[in-house]
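User: Could you check the structure of this?
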Amino acid sequence: MKSTENMTKYSLRSWVLVLALAPTVVVGILLGSYFTINRFYELEETLMEKGSSIIEPLALASEFGIVTQDRISTKKLLSASQMKNSSLVLSLAIFDSQNQLFVTSHYHKDFEIMRTQLPLSELNATEFSTLDDILIIRSPIIANTDLDPLAFIKNDSSNYSVESGFQQNHLAGQSIAKPIYNSKQEQVLGYIAILVNKENALLEQHRAAIAAFIIVLIGVQFNLFFTFRLVKHVNHPITEMVRVVAKIREGKLDTRLDGNLIGELDLLKRGINAMAGSLSEYHDEMQQNIDQATSDLRETLEQIEIQNVELDLAKKRALEASRIKSEFLANMSHELRTPLNGVIGFARQLIKTPLHSSQLDYIKTIERSASNLLGIINDILDFSKLEAGKMAFEKMPFALRETLADTLNIVSGSAREKGLELVIDIDSNVPESVSGDAMRVNQIITNLVGNAIKFTDKGSVILKITLVGSTEDNVTLRCEVIDTGIGIDESQQEYLFQAFGQADSSISRRFGGTGLGLVITKRLINQMGGQIGFTSSPNKGSNFWFILPLSISQFEIGEVLPMDVLSGKSILLFEPRELTRDVLNQRLEAWHLKLTSVGQLDHLNTTFEQPNIHFDYILMSCHGFSDPEQITVTLKQAKQHTNCLILLHDCIDQEVIVNHFKPNTDLLLSVPISDTQLARHLIYPPTPETLQQLMPLAVKDNNERLNVSVLAVDDNVANLKLIDSLLQELVFSVTTAKSGEEAIKLAKCKSFELIFMDIQMPGIDGITASQKIRHESMNRHTPIIAVTAHAIAEERANILASGMDGFLPKPIDESSLKKVINRWVAKPKFTHFDLHTLNWDLCLRQANQKPNLALEMLKMMVNSIPDTINTIESAMQNQDQQAMLQAVHKLHGASCYCGVPTTQKLCQEIESALKHKTQTSELEPEILELLDELTKVESAATQVLEQLSMDIKHD
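Assistant: Sure, the predicted structure tokens are below.
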């Protein structure tokens, strides 16, 4: 990548110059260097050859002179040779076998360098050595004749009678010296040395180098000439092409290349010109298309603008229609619920009176039909809220198994009437205490199980719940509703979740219904973060399943039972129905009971016939018997083998229940039964004394009226008469008012303990009347309960925000009315602490209006406060940010369900700051404030617990 970027930095001209000059320069330098160096070696060898041609003949000629010790003739020989080669030879010298100077041509300042430093025995041939610019050549003088040097000395002694002492001594020493031989066994008499001048040779070398440089320079100049010619004929056209292409890219499509070019460049020029021509044609064509498209787009935009205006108007009309529909639904809800309130209420009141069996059946039919109509109204309202996205979901803690049991008790009556086996199978690892919208969960289960029962004529309906995923704070449940009903044809399955539709139009005629149940169920599950699906086969049944995410409650909501009490105890189970028996087997084995499970009556009788057999519990089903008398006989027989006989039944014949079941059992339980309910009755088995004590108390509680004064306000005569009738059974003093004005006048004259106020009334409505009573009356602090047919959550929120204390939905249910009276009449008034520290009303709302649950959660928080304070103080002292975050997070979760707004706010602020990496030392003021607030909460909660515990137990 980098090499490619570097190549693009240089122009084509630069690359041509480099690629053309570089090889020439390199080759020229290499060739010049080669020939110059070769010339240097040739001159060196020539100089050595000349020196050898001078010194070697002199070495032969000097043999006689050195043997005869004739220095004069030898000197002449040397001088003549030097004179002849004066330009080459600087000096000549002969050394004898003792490496002493024998004779020299003339004295030279570098005389000593001519003397060899090696032994003469190693001088085998002519040798060369160089010192600076002087060549030194040495050649041995070999004895090639048989001349005896001593003989010449004796013969010539008379001729040289007058000699210096030095010469005599020298001759005397030489006469006794031993001969010297080289490696060739040649006698070495001495050697001749010559100093050769190299200046001329060096000059010739310099001349050769200069000549080579000139030749290379001339070659480079020629190369430059041809290179520039190449650049002119190649680079210039290419540069012109680049310029033309740039203009074409800028949109100047009429630009063309001119002139004649060489070779492929001319082809490239023609290609560029052709490309420019094509682009020009395409541009013209595209411009025409753009103009046409622009014209079409302008027309389209005008149409879109018109459509937008129409859509805007349609949107406004739709919003207005939606608003009108919401108002219509609210009003229709009120208008429909108001007469239904009277119908259902008076039907229930009439049931309490003495009636013939046919009259009682008629009244029950009226009450059931009105309730079904109310269910249809509720479905329509729920669908409307889901469609508008206004459905609000709560997140409250609830006990899952108890909630499902309560839900199935509502629909179990239909299953009993059709003789269906209704089974609840909840896996043991599914947690009991969860958080979510319990009411919507009930609605989902009711819709699915109700549909399964509706479309099943025989067989069974199973509700199966398993755990498919869990984290520290959340669980994911898979719920299945399996039936053996008519099933759904594959071609009709795609229409199943459509509003106001059913799989087959004939089904609606046969079974009834609006077709909204599954649509509402699907949308509820989707908005709660789950998903739903089903499998079905005609005449084989259906399996509707849904995945539902829920949070894990930090508190134990359900009743905590000592399950270890059951461990090791024996129990006999008789249940002919396989599905119910399998579920009960799993439950009882999970509780570590010694289980004996029987599915046939013969096996049961065989078990009873065994001698001395006794069980701690016997759990029997009412199925598998031919008639009530057989059940009676078997129950009496079973009673002899246990102290606790429990009968599970789904019988609808009250005569059989009263005459055959109750007298012969210790406990009678309806199926399906929840795990908690069954375990409670096994752990705390009933005794006859307990049952006898409970019956009078129940009668006494039902007939007891409270000594309080209540004001009831409603513009509808029938509803006013109904609530008056219901209140007369519960309280001693009831005052009625037919309008808001009358209610205000009565509130100014008389004090009441409780006021029931209708919302929609002509003139002064219920909200306005309540506000005036709060400001100008004797009932400023009296609880005012809204009696409303409005089922929309926003309306209920507005009612509570207006200053009312609660609401009672229509149609009025006697049990709900009694709960409201008991709650608000006996409502404690706390004056020793701030409501921001502890708000009991808020605590009740957070506990879904369940006083027992609210009290239990408050008690758990109070018990945890000392440990929480110690943990926070320790974390603050040690600057342990992680421990502080864990403690505050846990306290924050607890404060969300205990009505402690200030504590909840402080926990939220501190936890948020800690999660943003704020140091504990910086949060010390807030932490200290939280510790002070916890002390206040502990004190306030203790007062509430002391005041409420006895009241709640009494209720």
